[in-house]
Amino acid sequence: MPSAPVIAAVGCTKIASEHRDCNIRDLLADALLDLLADAGLDGLDAVEHGLASYESDHFNMQMTLGAILHDTIGMTPKPGVRIEGGGATGALALRTAWAHIQSGLCDSILVYGVEKNGRGLSSRTANQLFALSADVDWETAIGGTYTGFYAAMMRAHMAQYGTREEHFAHVAARNRRNAAFNPIAQKPMNISIEDVLRSRPVAEPYKLLDCSLLSDGAACILLASEAWAREHVPAFESRPPVFFTGTGCGTDTMRLGDRYPHITNFRAKQTAAQAAYAMAGIGDPLREIDVAELYDSYSGVEIQAVEDLGWVQRGEGGTAVAGGTFDLDGALPVNTSGGLLGRGAPVGATGILQAIEVAQQLWGLVDERRQVADAVRGLTDTHAGIASISVVNIFERRD
Amino acid sequence: MSDKVSSLIDITERDWSADDFWENFRQIERITLELSQRYHYSLGKQSRFFIELANRRFFATACAGCGQVYAPPRPLCPACLQPSEWRELTGEGSLETWSTLHFSPGTNADVAALQRPYVLAYVLLDGADTLFPHLLRAEGLCLRRGLRVRVAYNDGPVSHPIHLMCFVPA
Fold first, then answer.
1. Which of A4, A195, A232, B81 qualifies as a FRET site for A118, CA 20 to 30 Å off?
2. The pTM is what?
3. pLDDT tens sequence across B36-49
4. Superfamily of domain A6-120+214-238 in the CATH hierarchy
């Protein structure tokens, strides 16, 4: 297999509850301009392939959006493809781009993710649309919501392992505090665990501040072979190369109930992580990974993730999280960007934003208040639904 | 689909930099669009489950190959890729996990009419190997894992036949 692709350049918009002056094409344009500035490029002439990453046709009342986005940024007549995998869309897009490079199909591919999930629709309509991404015959029809499915999982985790509301409130408070050091973050908040516990219930045991955000935003990554990046991207030589060394994907049944008795954790994430570690040559992830962006769609999900990624024993995630292991000054800082809770979650861009945070951490380019010193390996964890699809991607700086 | 002009967004008060890349595009208009669809939606090979609810009977499927009993039913056993058989259950079972929902997506008329908060419950029905998700009407009751519950039927009318049933304490 050829050597791993590199992250040649990155770009994104600020993440916001609403970019009122942008439609979805404008958002992509702004992210692309940011990428060109990052790359030191004035155009995309040399880039061989495009890959559109967005989740919802409904939010924009526009199908075939991938073709429109490709057209918007002047990628025609080059090849393009659209990838969709629910919440995992952005990470699945990067994984697909990895395969495009590794297969030799192309040496460079622009992955562009975008979503307008913010206030273009009422939150009621947005929730109705998101509910359509559950099993409509059995889960959506009864009035189920994703917050409810996640909450039922967390209740099972609490019953099985003694995980407490204070444990996941720690995640909600920490990630929003981390967001204060990220200029693109949607909703930094200086809040305490008590603030989270006192916020109004949404789907018990989850409360308002345990829930992530609806966002507008876009993000792009130019993925390429190392040789292509050296030849075509002026900025590439100015920073240590970051390689995309591992990618894993796992799946699970759509409905939580069909996973019985495995309802406390994400099997798909365990599968994805093991595959990614094997590919990246990682044997002891807690020691070998230096920084990570975890899919904190709800605060407790981060607790389940640190278990499923094999960093702590099953059932010990709550105490490890509350003990500070994953804080900025902990053994393995996670969600330094603020995560979905603080930075925001424009779905098709989310997995790409996670990879950008990791790349910039490995390059040493983020705000010093959230910079992890001398980070060499970083991981992104992204999933769809209640991890019906899970993707783990691993990046490594090689000086 | 209909549309009407809704608003012009005033972005002139923003602190624009002198070299604003988009200086020729500062006027923004936002319109309101509506889109509604009516689906003639087939419940497919799951249909008997819903049809029998009106007869106050609860059916799962069982795989002749591996013996797994699925509730909700699966016409095709995903493990064996063989056609399943219908199997009637008593409709009694025990509560495994749940969430109390304070916000409703108003997915259909039945859901929109629910009094909030309502309980989304996962029930292990006697004789089944999977958890069945549905509403649990247990006002005032302290819920706990293992609580015995049963299917309660109603005669409708409902907008979606899944609402011909819910769970209640046994």
1. A195
2. 0.96
3. 889 999 999 999 99
4. Thiolase/Chalcone synthase (3.40.47.10)
